[in-house]
Design a protein that fits this description.
The complex is a heterodimer of chains A (423) and B (123). Chain A is α+β, with helices and mostly antiparallel strands and 423 residues long. Helix content of chain A is 30%, strand content 30%. Chain A has eleven helices and 15 strands. Mean pLDDT of chain A is 79; it is low at 1-14, 46-87 and 398-403. The chains are: A alpha+beta (423), B mainly beta (123).
């Protein structure tokens, strides 16, 4: 009974005088960044293999072969992720087998340190520019196979080598990979001042924390949590915390600005693609393409150039050239008219058809100037002026689009100037 | 150090953390700070007291050796600023070749900078 009472008293005494909480250096940093409204850095946990998916995105523009005639309708889908792995290497769809070759992805799968170590990563800059895809099998084309004047349904390949489709891409110029040297050098240049201010502000607060050091046997073992928290909230700490908070805000603005430039860098991709198939499945064809996409300053550019040729059954091989360019930028931002800004864009397309039986015209030229003014987040009023070199291209449009537009036919002006009325 | 295959820790994940607030050492003992940088490139600054000792871009990491320190207490402070959103770091302080401090950080905390410090008591 006496023992129990003594134990109880001891317990009460211990509760009445809890040991002061002591912060180690890591916890001091965490308290500082928390006071400035920032999340504390996390401890690195073992995650196994360096995961490629965790790497910064390094996409290229899509293949020119995917692009339509007008860059206003360009396919903005990404080139397959450079870090696609074995699981994505082979896919099956509709009887076709597609092999996606991603040379750097294969290297990274076999040798994870190329992702872990920047020095290794940089060695493969050239390899990261390549991508290729091969599709074996699939369906052929609908064409007049038996000479009766009617198109026959396409045949399905029985063997993998019946139809072989390939596409090889190479990023000629530019990179949006944040780990590429030109991008991280710019990143550090843009963020230099703000990083130094954060560094200085944290260091000043760390120095302040040393005023609350806790000694054990005359040896510092940490910082008093309560003492430091009080000091951070007091006259000494508040100005420093405010400085850190402002420095963090500036740094985050600079990070965003630097990353925006990187993410919109102009990149050029060249591609060669083609299809080789046995006679009963259709005609062989191949194409060359060059595509550019990105921004210079506030102006976005999209450029497509395609040249394609199909093996003719008889006579000359039909060839098609298509070139397109689109420019777009925001204007009038933060004005009485619109906060987000209106979009002004120009796109132009030139197409040339040589020995193409279905082509109505041997050349097609289109140009459009558009101004889109947002009325709200969901409504936009577009104004546009369109030029085409053949009237039927203007009046014979099929389908419709989901906004109201104004189209001006300027061909009478051309007739007035030149006296010509043809086309 | 394992390279991350078969679930083994990477350079920045290896080893247990050691987080002493102060490291005591006799005058003249070499003090090395090594910061390993994984999956990114980072700008690193190292301060000894109020004097900037190092400010450089770490490709795989940075190494700093402190000068011979006078007896007394010194604050060794560093900050690491990675260039990309996914990163890991491991900071290690060796005194006379023996690891006395080890800290591992990652981008999981969503803080753009990782900073660290330790006090050196030189006798």
């Amino acid at each position: 009974m006496t023992l129990t009472a003594s134990a109880l008293m001891l317990c009460v005494v211990m509760q009445a005088a809890p040991a002061p909480r002591v912060l180690n250096s890591d916890e001091v940093i965490a308290a500082i960044v928390k006071a400035a409204g920032q999340p504390a850095p996390s401890v690195a946990r073992v995650s196994g293999a360096a995961e490629p998916s965790a790497q910064p995105s390094a996409k290229q523009v899509s293949a020119p072969s995917a692009s339509g005639a007008s860059p206003a309708n360009v396919d903005r889908a990404s080139f397959p992720e450079l870090f696609a792995f074995a699981a994505d290497l082979v896919s099956f769809n509709g009887g076709a087998t597609t092999l996606s070759l991603n040379p750097f992805g294969l290297v990274a799968a076999a040798k994870p340190e190329v992702l872990d170590k920047q020095s290794e990563y940089q060695k493969y800059n050239g390899l990261r520019r390549f991508g290729a895809a091969f599709t074996l099998g699939g369906k052929g084309e609908k064409f007049d196979r038996d000479g009766d004047g009617k198109d026959d349904d396409p045949l399905t390949a029985q063997n993998l080598d019946d139809i072989v489709t390939y596409e090889v891409k190479y990023r000629v110029w530019g990179s949006r990979d944040r780990r590429d040297q030109e991008n991280w050098k710019r990143y550090f240049a843009v963020t230099s001042d703000s990083f130094e201010k954060v560094d200085a502000a944290i260091r000043a607060l760390v120095t302040l924390s040393l005023k609350d050091v806790v000694l054990e046997n005359n040896v510092p073992i940490g910082v008093s949590a309560s003492g430091f928290e009080a000091r951070l909230a007091g006259a000494e700490g508040q100005p420093l915390v405010s400085t850190l908070r402002e420095a963090y805000a500036a740094l985050k603005r600079d990070i965003k600005a630097a990353n925006t430039v990187t993410d919109k860098r102009l990149i050029w991709t060249a591609a060669i693609a083609g299809k080789h198939q046995k006679e009963q499945f259709g005609r062989d064809n191949w194409k060359l393409g060059l595509r550019g996409e990105g921004a210079t300053g506030r102006v976005d550019h999209t450029i497509n150039i395609d040249w394609s040729q199909v093996d003719a059954l008889t006579g000359d091989d039909p060839t098609v050239f298509k070139g397109g360019y689109k420019l777009a930028c925001k204007i009038l931002q933060n004005t009485w008219l619109t906060k987000d800004g209106a979009t002004v864009s120009f796109d132009g397309v030139f197409e040339h058809y040589d020995h193409v039986p279905d082509a109505t015209h041997s050349t097609v030229a289109k140009a459009a100037l558009k101004l889109e003014i947002p009325l709200s987040k969901s409504a936009t009023v577009p104004f546009s002026a369109t030029y085409v070199n053949h009237r039927d291209l203007l009046t014979g449009q099929q389908g419709w689009i989901g906004h109201v537009g104004v189209t001006w036919d300027l061909s009478p002006l051309k007739a007035l100037v030149s006296g010509a009325t043809k086309d | 150090v394992a390279n991350g295959t078969n679930g083994a820790p990477t350079r920045c994940e290896a080893g247990d953390e050691l987080l002493p607030f102060q490291i005591s050492l006799p005058r003249g003992t070499p003090v090395d700070l090594e910061i390993l940088i994984c999956s990114t490139v980072a700008r690193v600054r190292v301060w000894l007291g109020d004097v900037l000792q190092l400010d450089e871009t770490g490709i795989d990491g940075v190494h700093y050796r402190a000068p011979v320190l006078d007896p007394g207490r010194h604050l060794l402070f560093w900050s690491v600023f990675p260039a990309t959103e996914d990163w890991k770091t491991r900071d290690e302080i060796r005194v006379g070749g023996i690891v006395r401090f080890r800290r591992k950080k990652s981008s999981d905390g969503n803080n753009p900078i990782q900073a660290g410090f330790v006090t050196l008591e030189v006798s």
